[in-house]
Give the backbone structure.
Amino acid sequence: MNEGLRRAGARLGMAVWLLGVWLLLWGRVDALTLTGGVVAVLVAYAVSRLPTVPMVTRVRPLPLAVAAAEFAWDLLVSSVVIGWHALRAPGRVRGAIVEVEARSRSELVLLAVTTSVSLRPGTLLVDLDRDRSLLRIHGMPVRDPDEADSTREGVLRTERRLMRALVTPDDARRTEDI
């Protein structure tokens, strides 16, 4: 698909989303509300740089189900680990900021990865350098470089699962070698 056409489609997706929110806020659909919404969307695009809606070229159901199941398992394990440390020695639990260089360039996949990481007990997104796809994650417990590497590998595993499940134009070539 042509890059310009894909960008126009993504911008149109964001415009439709904004118009839908406008209509929900007003609580009714009539000619005046619809016209006002279109004007509001056009003004919003004229005065700001709105993000585009990330495009997904293909959703793979089986890898998505695997990613969801592994996320549920990660939630259980991390909850038990953090709970154990909180009960056993709450004052001695150490954390660290771990840098993770993501392979994905897709905003959608990075959003899914950072949301997944932040929902798990013991990990939290601190910073995202989108230009370099560099994530800074606060992880607990992290007492030594091996545990930092384990945290980093956990984030990269999550990213690989999501890249397999959600194929985007930005990552289409990268998913073949994962």
User: Anything to note?
Assistant: The radius of gyration is 20 Å.
